[in-house]
Design a protein that fits this description.
Blueprint: H1 2-6, E1 9-10, E2 15-16, H2 17-24, H3 35-53, H4 61-85, H5 99-133, H6 147-168
Antiparallel strand pairs: 1-2
Helix pairs in contact: 3-4, 3-6, 4-6, 5-6
């Protein structure tokens, strides 16, 4: 019963205390301990998020709905894998991290907010260009709903700090069992 009480859930971060501690103390080998693999994961997530943003361009409704569901599932899986790849540091509260981890996380958030502002500028210009500058060429845009781009933007906001940390963190070298 005491174990359940010690496992505090941080609502603003979306993590539990045990989840963060287990992730930080995990020494099992993983392909995402390598910086190149984490960067590949980030690039795949970026492609999937942009693809989710552009699903509305598919003219057939059935194909569009299938593509949206598949891309949303892939994006959610990538989001959780990104969090795991950076050991939940991007989402952990201050009381569970040391000073070095807090400074790395805060630096990641600074860069994430800068990239997010640039990304929102690109989204705004792209959608203005599509709907304002080329309205006669886009008859299919009459029934446009903003659900896919809004979902993609929400996923950008949620996953960008983990993406930045996954991109910046160096390769983790495993510690041999004899050295522990």
């Amino acid at each position: 019963m005491k174990d359940k009480k010690d496992n505090k859930f941080y609502w603003s971060a979306g993590v539990t205390k045990n989840e963060v501690i287990e992730s930080l103390n995990d020494h099992r080998p993983s392909i995402f301990r390598n910086q190149a693999n984490r960067r590949a994961l980030v690039l795949v997530a970026i492609v999937c998020l942009f693809s989710l943003s552009l699903v509305f361009c598919i003219p057939q409704p059935k194909l569009r709905s299938y593509a949206e569901i598949v891309l949303l599932a892939i994006v959610l899986l990538l989001y959780f894998q990104l969090r795991k790849a950076v050991r939940n540091v991007a989402d952990a509260p201050d009381e569970l991290l040391d000073e070095r981890q807090i400074s790395i996380r805060n630096s990641g958030y600074l860069h994430a907010y800068r990239w997010l502002s640039a990304l929102m500028l690109v989204y705004t210009i792209a959608y203005l260009a599509i709907f304002e500058f080329f309205p006669s060429h886009l008859n299919w845009a009459v029934n446009f709903k903003f659900t896919e781009p809004i979902i993609a933007i929400c996923m950008w906001v949620a996953s960008l700090p983990s993406m930045i940390l996954a991109w910046q963190l160096p390769t983790e070298h495993s510690i041999p069992e004899e050295a522990k």
